[in-house]
Write a structure and sequence with these properties.
Elements (H helix, E strand, L loop, with lengths): L1 H54 L6 H8 L3 H13 L1
Length: 86
């Protein structure tokens, strides 16, 4: 009988600890995601403002300028493959 009481109490403690850990984990991960979303959003605003101000041609949108400025995926893959061989 003593063992069963100890086992029940141990399971109860384990459940409480696990529940607390999950709550803390959800809070931390949720906070991180919120911060990440905010930082990335603000970075994109700054990036778009810079491109609009300094890198667009007459009548060109920011998206068109980004497409013009970024090399195609195949070029990026070739470049990284060449760097890996060196």
């Amino acid at each position: 009988m003593a063992k069963s009481k100890i086992v029940k109490v141990n399971e109860k403690i384990a459940g409480a600890v696990t529940g607390s850990y999950k709550k803390i984990e959800e809070t931390v991960v949720g906070s991180y995601k919120k911060i990440e979303t905010t930082v990335v959003g603000e970075y994109r605003k700054i990036e778009n403002a810079f491109i609009d101000r300094y890198l667009t041609h007459e009548g060109e949108t920011v998206e068109e300028a980004k497409a013009r400025l970024s090399p195609p995926q195949s070029t990026r893959e070739e470049t990284s493959a060449e760097k890996g061989q060196e």
